[in-house]
Amino acid sequence: MIGIIGGSGLYDLPGLTDTRWVDCDTPWGPPSDQVFLGRLGDAELAFLPRHGRGHRVPPSELNYRANIAALKSLGVSDVLSLSAVGSLREDLPPGCFVVVDQFIDRTFAREKSFFGTGLVAHVAMASPVCARLGEHIGRALEAQQLPHRRGGTYLVMEGPQFSTLAESRLYRAWNCDVIGMTNMPEAKLAREAELCYASVAMVTDFDCWHPTHDDVTVDAVIRVLLGNAAHAQQLVARVSDALAHDAHAPGCACRRALDHALITAPAVRDPAMVQRLQGIAGRVLR
Ligand SMILES: CSC[C@H]1O[C@H](OP(=O)(O)O)[C@H](O)[C@@H]1O
Ligand SMILES: Nc1ncnc2[nH]cnc12
Asked: Which amino acid positions bind substrate, per UniProt (predicted)?
Protein backbone atom coordinates (compact mmCIF):
# COMPACT_ATOMS: atom_id res chain seq x y z
CA MET A 1 0.00 0.00 0.00
CA ILE A 2 1.17 3.53 -0.81
CA GLY A 3 0.90 6.26 1.81
CA ILE A 4 0.34 9.87 0.81
CA ILE A 5 0.84 12.62 3.39
CA GLY A 6 -0.92 15.75 2.18
CA GLY A 7 0.42 19.07 3.39
CA SER A 8 -1.06 22.56 3.55
CA GLY A 9 -3.95 22.93 1.11
CA LEU A 10 -4.13 19.18 0.41
CA TYR A 11 -6.77 17.79 2.71
CA ASP A 12 -8.33 15.16 0.46
CA LEU A 13 -7.53 13.07 -2.60
CA PRO A 14 -10.24 13.04 -5.29
CA GLY A 15 -10.49 10.39 -8.03
CA LEU A 16 -10.14 7.27 -5.86
CA THR A 17 -12.58 4.35 -5.88
CA ASP A 18 -13.70 2.04 -3.03
CA THR A 19 -13.05 4.88 -0.60
CA ARG A 20 -13.53 5.10 3.14
CA TRP A 21 -12.14 7.14 6.05
CA VAL A 22 -10.84 4.87 8.81
CA ASP A 23 -9.96 5.55 12.44
CA CYS A 24 -6.46 4.61 13.54
CA ASP A 25 -4.95 4.49 16.97
CA THR A 26 -1.30 3.80 17.72
CA PRO A 27 0.81 3.27 20.85
CA TRP A 28 1.80 6.95 20.41
CA GLY A 29 -1.77 8.20 20.24
CA PRO A 30 -4.01 9.13 17.32
CA PRO A 31 -2.74 10.55 14.01
CA SER A 32 -3.78 14.00 12.74
CA ASP A 33 -7.04 12.69 11.32
CA GLN A 34 -8.73 9.57 10.03
CA VAL A 35 -6.92 7.97 7.09
CA PHE A 36 -8.60 7.94 3.66
CA LEU A 37 -8.29 4.55 1.95
CA GLY A 38 -9.03 3.84 -1.70
CA ARG A 39 -7.86 2.51 -5.06
CA LEU A 40 -6.30 4.41 -7.93
CA GLY A 41 -5.77 2.15 -10.94
CA ASP A 42 -3.71 -0.78 -9.69
CA ALA A 43 -2.57 1.01 -6.53
CA GLU A 44 -3.99 0.83 -3.00
CA LEU A 45 -3.66 4.24 -1.34
CA ALA A 46 -3.78 5.51 2.22
CA PHE A 47 -4.05 9.31 2.39
CA LEU A 48 -3.43 11.27 5.59
CA PRO A 49 -3.92 15.04 5.72
CA ARG A 50 -0.85 16.04 7.74
CA HIS A 51 -2.53 18.88 9.61
CA GLY A 52 -5.97 17.22 9.70
CA ARG A 53 -8.94 18.22 7.55
CA GLY A 54 -9.44 21.97 7.86
CA HIS A 55 -5.80 22.38 8.99
CA ARG A 56 -6.30 22.09 12.76
CA VAL A 57 -2.80 21.13 13.95
CA PRO A 58 0.33 23.35 13.71
CA PRO A 59 3.73 21.89 12.74
CA SER A 60 5.15 21.72 16.29
CA GLU A 61 2.08 19.94 17.67
CA LEU A 62 1.75 17.30 14.99
CA ASN A 63 2.02 13.78 16.36
CA TYR A 64 4.60 12.70 13.78
CA ARG A 65 5.09 9.32 15.47
CA ALA A 66 1.38 8.55 15.35
CA ASN A 67 1.13 9.65 11.71
CA ILE A 68 3.93 7.32 10.61
CA ALA A 69 2.85 4.46 12.90
CA ALA A 70 -0.75 4.70 11.61
CA LEU A 71 0.39 4.38 7.99
CA LYS A 72 2.68 1.48 8.88
CA SER A 73 -0.14 -0.29 10.74
CA LEU A 74 -2.32 -0.09 7.61
CA GLY A 75 0.32 -1.93 5.59
CA VAL A 76 1.92 1.10 3.91
CA SER A 77 5.42 0.46 2.54
CA ASP A 78 6.09 3.68 0.56
CA VAL A 79 5.31 7.22 1.71
CA LEU A 80 5.00 10.14 -0.68
CA SER A 81 5.04 13.39 1.26
CA LEU A 82 3.62 16.55 -0.30
CA SER A 83 4.60 19.88 1.19
CA ALA A 84 4.37 23.61 0.64
CA VAL A 85 7.75 25.32 0.92
CA GLY A 86 9.36 28.70 0.57
CA SER A 87 12.13 29.09 -2.00
CA LEU A 88 15.65 30.10 -0.99
CA ARG A 89 16.86 30.39 -4.60
CA GLU A 90 16.12 32.75 -7.45
CA ASP A 91 15.86 29.81 -9.90
CA LEU A 92 13.14 28.03 -7.88
CA PRO A 93 10.13 30.33 -8.31
CA PRO A 94 6.61 29.70 -6.98
CA GLY A 95 4.94 26.89 -8.93
CA CYS A 96 8.16 24.88 -9.17
CA PHE A 97 8.37 21.34 -7.71
CA VAL A 98 11.52 20.11 -5.95
CA VAL A 99 12.30 16.42 -5.41
CA VAL A 100 13.98 16.90 -2.06
CA ASP A 101 16.99 14.69 -1.34
CA GLN A 102 18.55 16.29 1.75
CA PHE A 103 17.38 18.00 4.91
CA ILE A 104 18.82 20.26 7.56
CA ASP A 105 16.79 19.69 10.71
CA ARG A 106 16.57 22.85 12.82
CA THR A 107 13.50 21.72 14.78
CA PHE A 108 13.83 21.44 18.55
CA ALA A 109 10.40 20.91 20.10
CA ARG A 110 9.31 17.55 18.70
CA GLU A 111 9.51 13.88 19.56
CA LYS A 112 11.95 12.51 16.99
CA SER A 113 12.24 8.79 17.64
CA PHE A 114 10.09 5.72 18.28
CA PHE A 115 12.98 4.37 20.35
CA GLY A 116 14.34 5.56 23.71
CA THR A 117 15.39 4.41 27.15
CA GLY A 118 14.97 0.64 27.31
CA LEU A 119 15.48 0.14 23.58
CA VAL A 120 17.96 2.42 21.85
CA ALA A 121 18.38 2.54 18.06
CA HIS A 122 20.46 4.63 15.68
CA VAL A 123 19.40 4.44 12.04
CA ALA A 124 21.45 5.86 9.14
CA MET A 125 20.21 9.19 7.78
CA ALA A 126 23.02 10.10 5.36
CA SER A 127 20.58 9.55 2.50
CA PRO A 128 17.28 10.54 4.11
CA VAL A 129 15.12 9.97 1.05
CA CYS A 130 14.41 6.74 -0.85
CA ALA A 131 16.29 7.10 -4.17
CA ARG A 132 13.96 4.65 -5.92
CA LEU A 133 10.87 6.62 -4.91
CA GLY A 134 12.63 9.91 -5.78
CA GLU A 135 13.36 8.54 -9.26
CA HIS A 136 9.67 7.71 -9.81
CA ILE A 137 8.72 11.22 -8.72
CA GLY A 138 11.32 12.81 -11.02
CA ARG A 139 10.07 10.79 -14.00
CA ALA A 140 6.44 11.68 -13.24
CA LEU A 141 7.27 15.41 -13.06
CA GLU A 142 9.07 15.14 -16.40
CA ALA A 143 6.15 13.30 -17.99
CA GLN A 144 3.76 15.99 -16.73
CA GLN A 145 6.13 18.68 -18.05
CA LEU A 146 5.96 20.51 -14.76
CA PRO A 147 8.72 22.94 -13.78
CA HIS A 148 10.83 20.98 -11.34
CA ARG A 149 14.27 20.20 -10.03
CA ARG A 150 15.59 16.80 -8.99
CA GLY A 151 17.47 17.12 -5.74
CA GLY A 152 17.44 19.89 -3.19
CA THR A 153 18.04 20.61 0.46
CA TYR A 154 14.99 21.38 2.60
CA LEU A 155 15.65 23.42 5.75
CA VAL A 156 13.17 22.36 8.42
CA MET A 157 12.41 25.19 10.86
CA GLU A 158 10.36 24.93 14.04
CA GLY A 159 7.85 27.67 13.27
CA PRO A 160 5.01 28.42 13.48
CA GLN A 161 6.21 31.96 12.73
CA PHE A 162 7.95 32.41 9.39
CA SER A 163 11.70 33.20 9.38
CA THR A 164 13.36 36.50 10.16
CA LEU A 165 15.32 38.09 7.33
CA ALA A 166 18.61 37.19 9.05
CA GLU A 167 17.55 33.54 9.33
CA SER A 168 16.44 33.41 5.70
CA ARG A 169 19.80 34.86 4.60
CA LEU A 170 21.65 32.40 6.83
CA TYR A 171 19.87 29.40 5.27
CA ARG A 172 20.69 30.76 1.80
CA ALA A 173 24.34 31.05 2.83
CA TRP A 174 24.12 27.37 3.88
CA ASN A 175 23.08 26.55 0.30
CA CYS A 176 19.65 25.33 1.32
CA ASP A 177 17.12 25.32 -1.51
CA VAL A 178 13.72 25.37 0.17
CA ILE A 179 12.29 25.94 3.64
CA GLY A 180 9.35 24.40 5.46
CA MET A 181 8.23 23.26 8.91
CA THR A 182 7.15 19.64 8.64
CA ASN A 183 9.43 17.15 6.88
CA MET A 184 11.41 16.48 10.04
CA PRO A 185 11.04 14.40 12.11
CA GLU A 186 8.66 12.83 9.57
CA ALA A 187 11.54 11.52 7.38
CA LYS A 188 13.50 10.25 10.41
CA LEU A 189 10.51 8.36 11.76
CA ALA A 190 9.73 6.86 8.35
CA ARG A 191 13.30 5.55 8.26
CA GLU A 192 12.96 4.07 11.76
CA ALA A 193 9.72 2.42 10.65
CA GLU A 194 11.54 0.99 7.60
CA LEU A 195 9.26 2.84 5.18
CA CYS A 196 10.48 4.17 1.85
CA TYR A 197 9.96 7.96 2.08
CA ALA A 198 10.30 10.79 -0.43
CA SER A 199 9.14 14.36 -0.38
CA VAL A 200 7.86 16.59 -3.16
CA ALA A 201 8.16 20.22 -2.18
CA MET A 202 5.87 22.64 -3.98
CA VAL A 203 7.33 26.14 -3.98
CA THR A 204 4.73 28.68 -2.92
CA ASP A 205 6.78 31.81 -2.12
CA PHE A 206 10.24 33.38 -1.86
CA ASP A 207 10.16 33.43 1.95
CA CYS A 208 11.35 36.93 2.98
CA TRP A 209 14.83 37.34 1.45
CA HIS A 210 13.90 38.37 -2.08
CA PRO A 211 14.36 42.08 -2.79
CA THR A 212 11.52 42.34 -5.34
CA HIS A 213 8.98 39.84 -3.98
CA ASP A 214 6.63 40.30 -1.05
CA ASP A 215 7.37 38.46 2.18
CA VAL A 216 5.55 35.15 2.57
CA THR A 217 1.96 35.14 3.87
CA VAL A 218 -0.49 32.28 4.39
CA ASP A 219 -2.77 33.79 1.74
CA ALA A 220 0.00 33.72 -0.85
CA VAL A 221 0.94 30.12 0.04
CA ILE A 222 -2.64 28.89 -0.28
CA ARG A 223 -3.23 30.79 -3.55
CA VAL A 224 -0.23 29.09 -5.22
CA LEU A 225 -1.12 25.72 -3.71
CA LEU A 226 -4.69 25.76 -4.93
CA GLY A 227 -3.41 26.65 -8.39
CA ASN A 228 -1.23 23.51 -8.26
CA ALA A 229 -3.60 21.08 -6.55
CA ALA A 230 -4.60 19.37 -9.81
CA HIS A 231 -0.91 18.92 -10.73
CA ALA A 232 -0.24 17.38 -7.33
CA GLN A 233 -3.15 14.98 -7.76
CA GLN A 234 -1.91 13.91 -11.22
CA LEU A 235 1.54 13.43 -9.74
CA VAL A 236 0.12 11.14 -7.06
CA ALA A 237 -1.66 9.09 -9.74
CA ARG A 238 1.48 8.67 -11.87
CA VAL A 239 3.79 7.84 -8.98
CA SER A 240 1.27 5.41 -7.48
CA ASP A 241 0.95 3.58 -10.77
CA ALA A 242 4.75 3.34 -11.14
CA LEU A 243 5.08 2.07 -7.57
CA ALA A 244 2.34 -0.50 -8.02
CA HIS A 245 4.40 -2.04 -10.85
CA ASP A 246 7.88 -1.62 -9.37
CA ALA A 247 9.56 -5.02 -9.07
CA HIS A 248 12.55 -3.48 -7.24
CA ALA A 249 10.51 -2.29 -4.27
CA PRO A 250 10.97 -5.38 -2.05
CA GLY A 251 14.78 -5.11 -2.28
CA CYS A 252 14.90 -1.46 -1.24
CA ALA A 253 17.46 -0.77 1.52
CA CYS A 254 14.99 1.52 3.38
CA ARG A 255 13.04 -1.61 4.25
CA ARG A 256 16.00 -3.01 6.16
CA ALA A 257 16.97 0.21 7.97
CA LEU A 258 16.89 -1.52 11.37
CA ASP A 259 19.21 -4.38 10.40
CA HIS A 260 22.18 -2.81 12.22
CA ALA A 261 20.48 -0.09 14.27
CA LEU A 262 19.51 -1.62 17.63
CA ILE A 263 22.20 -1.25 20.29
CA THR A 264 20.52 -2.15 23.59
CA ALA A 265 21.55 -5.64 24.72
CA PRO A 266 18.56 -8.04 24.48
CA ALA A 267 18.92 -8.94 28.19
CA VAL A 268 18.35 -5.36 29.36
CA ARG A 269 15.65 -4.30 26.91
CA ASP A 270 12.50 -2.93 28.55
CA PRO A 271 9.75 -5.50 27.81
CA ALA A 272 7.06 -2.82 27.69
CA MET A 273 9.09 -0.86 25.17
CA VAL A 274 9.69 -3.98 23.10
CA GLN A 275 5.95 -4.64 23.13
CA ARG A 276 5.12 -1.05 22.13
CA LEU A 277 7.56 -1.23 19.22
CA GLN A 278 6.21 -4.44 17.66
CA GLY A 279 4.31 -2.58 14.94
CA ILE A 280 7.36 -0.53 13.99
CA ALA A 281 10.31 -2.83 14.58
CA GLY A 282 8.74 -6.28 14.95
CA ARG A 283 10.84 -7.56 12.04
CA VAL A 284 14.05 -7.24 14.10
CA LEU A 285 12.56 -7.81 17.56
CA ARG A 286 11.12 -11.27 17.10
C1 LIG B 1 0.54 27.39 5.26
S2 LIG B 1 2.19 27.96 5.21
C3 LIG B 1 3.14 27.09 6.42
C4 LIG B 1 2.90 25.62 6.54
O5 LIG B 1 2.87 25.00 5.23
C6 LIG B 1 3.83 23.96 5.20
O7 LIG B 1 3.19 22.78 5.66
P8 LIG B 1 3.23 21.39 4.88
O9 LIG B 1 4.65 20.93 4.81
O10 LIG B 1 2.38 20.47 5.69
O11 LIG B 1 2.67 21.66 3.50
C12 LIG B 1 4.89 24.46 6.17
O13 LIG B 1 5.79 23.45 6.54
C14 LIG B 1 4.07 25.00 7.29
O15 LIG B 1 3.60 23.99 8.14
N1 LIG C 1 8.48 30.56 3.52
C2 LIG C 1 8.10 29.49 4.20
N3 LIG C 1 8.68 29.17 5.38
C4 LIG C 1 8.30 28.07 6.06
N5 LIG C 1 7.34 27.25 5.66
C6 LIG C 1 6.72 27.51 4.50
N7 LIG C 1 5.75 26.87 3.86
C8 LIG C 1 5.48 27.55 2.73
N9 LIG C 1 6.28 28.65 2.63
C10 LIG C 1 7.06 28.63 3.73
From this structure: 181, 205-207
Q: 21 alpha carbon to ligand 2 midpoint, in Å?
A: 29
Which CATH class for the 2-104+127-256 domain? alpha beta
Q: Which of 85, 170, 176 to mutate to test the pocket of ligand 2 (most atoms within 8 A of CB)?
A: 85
- Distance (Å, rounded) from C-alpha 124 to C-alpha 108? 20
Confirm whether residue 181 is marked as ligand binding.
yes
- pLDDT band at 286; cut points 50, 70, 90: confident
The complex scores an ipTM of 0.99
Contact criterion met (CB below 8 Å) for 81 and 38: no
CB-based contact 115:189 (threshold 8 Å) = no
Q: Per-domain residue ranges for the chain?
A: 2-104+127-256
Are 99 and 232 a contacting pair, CB within 8 Å?
A: no
Would the annotation count 55 as a binding residue?
no
CA distance 96 to 203: 5
205 catalytic residue (yes or no): yes
Question: Closest by alpha carbon to 194, among 132, 246, 111, 258?
Answer: 258
**pLDDT, mean of residues 63-69:** 98
